[in-house]
Amino acid sequence: MLIYFLEDDEQIAYIIEKTITHAGYLQKGFDLAKDFLKALEKQTPDLVILDIMLPDMSGFEVIKKIREFYKDLPIIMLSALNSEMDKVKALDMGADDYITKPFGILELTSRINAKLRSVGSKEIYVKGNLELNREIYKCYINKLEINLTTKEFEILALLLKNEGKVVTKETLFNEIWQMDNSVETRTLDVHMKSLRAKIKDANFEIETIRGVGFSL
Tell me, what DSSP letter sits at residue 32? Predict the structure, then answer.
């Protein structure tokens, strides 16, 4: 799973980065809101950690922008502002959790794990006549089971999760193969060709965005 964090303090950013990595998750850090928002348009993470006091934009404004397009993306606020009103404002605007600085590494790890467990709780994706059930690891088209390999299943699940957005090849390599693009592109192409053939009766297509990735 991938976590984005937005923090302009280098020392705190370092601690967050090491905490996320030690917990076993992929991470990407930003010190400017504008860079964070651009990255969010290209790839949707599984969780976001936000500071409030940023050099180019308030964290409250960042929450607002996130919630305009990503209603279910988990957001943890990590801020030195510790008044009750600040916490209430953040939660009312759409944050899922609020941790005050200074914070404990174990607490942050626990909060991250809790939120990511809730992300993984979505077990069924439905698009048109296709249903993907993660709980029983089965795929159906028109109620008929489609036999997918593990990799094909996970590729389709990732595309469904990011419906309407481009899933980059880099994301697929990181999420499905748990490594960078050292995996041969040919391997991905073979899996994608097989997946497309198996879901040819679905009333949607997997579109190739040349040189970038794929999209539903």
Answer: S
